[in-house]
Design a protein that fits this description.
CATH topology of the largest domain: pyruvate-formate lyase- activating enzyme
Shape: globular
Strand order of the largest sheet: 9-10-8-7-6-5-4-1-13
Number of strands: 19
Structural class: alpha/beta
Radius of gyration: 21 Å
CATH class of the largest domain: Alpha Beta
Length: 457
């Protein structure tokens, strides 16, 4: 059954998770979760995996000097840089609370600074924050340290300081280089600033430079996206994330600064993505999946080729650990058997951790079914396939699955051979929808929770 591509776009452009986790946050079973349980799971996972795999650490630095209206992240807008010291003290206190749960020194394998704008913090304050953490860990031989930088405020001193602390990867939020689009989303960012930080990053010795781009923003056109992508390709970043704009004004009021009529429709929006994707492929980038591209020599592309690609709350990674500790307001942690999320309000977060306890406000303990389906969705997102054994078990869990899979196979999105399932090249466009077929928590969840997700396209 040959279905026109535009028709598939309209059909599958529904609210769907990005699947950096399973179950996704709105469908966590919070009624059966407690902080004591969480501490037990963290300790158990650490004991099982620290020596073999090491741990991952995510530090959320939520501050920004101005609001980018497209942004759906948890941020605090302020020009008062005195907030840096108190917040850093709270993060260090939270880290010490976790360390007291463990009986040995953690082996730090993955460290990421996210935001907000991590480079809101001065180089000196970033060093004050990170030095005690690094001094009390064993740095894993295969460690990967990365941070998110804003081209407008990332200085050479930032780059040198973080490189000295072991960072070798940086991701710059580019979003779009068209002046009209930048004005609409309140992100004025001259190309010259991006060129400067790329040049300085390479001069300092960063081995991986990533760009974040967004399609579906107000006033974007095929021509403006082409212009942005061509300028980006000229700078030759190692990785590119080309994200779909998540329009959720009921959750992020800043997005009400422009009208729906200024946004591309679903088919038009997908055409913007295809414009970018075709240019990336022509320039030699590999389509990693979930809107990510990498040069063939980059570790992300190599991990895809070698079936080592992993996905967690930080997105795609080549580092697979079973324990991810999230520090800071709104940060999410993954302890293999359970998830937990911190208090989102900065002041409430600081009060709780400075009182000597964790700032966890919600979480989820995995059932055996959750753990199985988590791996199913990870295999789809990272490898684009499921084994016959996995497919057999999912059919046993859901007797409505066969009809949906048959329909997607007829549409050319998946292929089933000898009971193994393969995502087709066209199916990669709809990978979030394919993953959703196996999302039992979402299928059984309340409709109001489903509204918290962005559109798939």
């Amino acid at each position: 059954m040959k279905v026109p591509f535009d028709e598939l776009i309209r059909k599958y452009n529904v609210a769907v998770p990005r699947y950096t986790s399973y179950p996704t946050v709105p469908f966590w079973a919070q009624h059966s979760f407690s902080i004591d349980q969480w501490k037990h799971m963290v300790k158990k996972t650490f004991q099982e995996t620290n020596l073999a795999k090491g741990i991952s650490l995510y530090i959320h630095l939520p501050f920004c000097e101005s609001l980018c209206t497209y942004c759906a992240c948890n941020t605090r807008i302020t020009k008062n840089h005195q907030v840096e010291e108190r917040y850093s003290q709270a993060v260090l206190q939270e880290w010490m609370t976790y360390k007291r749960l463990w009986e040995s020194v953690p082996a730090l394998r993955e460290l990421h600074l996210g935001g907000g704008t991590p480079t809101f913090f001065s180089p000196a304050n970033l060093e004050k924050l990170l030095t005690p953490i690094l001094a009390e860990t064993v740095i894993h031989k295969d460690h990967a340290f990365s941070f998110e930088g804003h081209p407008n405020n990332t200085t050479r001193d930032h780059l040198i300081t973080l490189a000295r602390l072991g960072f070798s990867r940086v991701s710059y939020g580019v979003q779009d280089l068209d002046e009209r689009v930048q004005k609409a989303i309140n992100r004025i960012q001259p190309l010259e600033n991006l060129q400067r930080v790329v040049r300085e990053s390479r001069d300092v010795g960063y081995s991986s430079i990533s760009f974040d781009l967004v399609y579906g923003l107000p006033f974007q056109t095929a021509e403006s996206v082409r212009n942005t992508v061509e300028k980006v390709i000229a700078l030759r970043p190692d990785r590119i994330a080309f994200y779909s704009y998540a329009h959720v004004p009921w959750m992020k009021p800043g997005q009400r600064g422009y009208e729906d009529c200024h946004l591309p429709g679903d088919v038009e929006k997908r055409a913007l993505y295809e414009t970018g994707r075709s240019l990336f492929l022509e320039a030699g980038y590999i389509d990693v999946g979930m809107d990510h591209f990498a040069l063939p020599a980059d570790e992300l592309a190599i991990a895809l080729e070698e079936n080592r690609l992993h996905r967690n709350f930080m997105g795609y990674t080549v580092t697979k650990t079973d324990l991810l500790i999230g520090l800071g307001a709104s940060a999410i942690s993954d302890a293999h058997y359970a998830y937990a999320q911190n208090e989102k309000n900065v002041e409430s977060y600081e009060r709780r951790v400075m009182a000597g306890d964790l700032a966890v406000v919600k979480g989820h303990v995995h059932s055996l079914q959750d753990r199985f389906l988590k791996h199913v969705i990870l295999d789809l997102a990272c490898r684009g396939k499921l084994s016959a054994a996995q497919l057999t078990l999912t059919h046993e869990l859901d007797d409505t699955l066969s009809a949906s899979l048959d329909e997607m196979q007829q549409e050319g999105l998946i292929r089933i051979e000898n009971n193994d399932l393969y995502v087709t090249s066209m199916g990669r466009t709809f990978i979030r929808n394919i993953c959703q077929l196996f999302d039992h928590r979402m299928k059984a969840g309340a409709s109001k929770e489903k509204l918290k997700f962005s559109q798939a396209i």
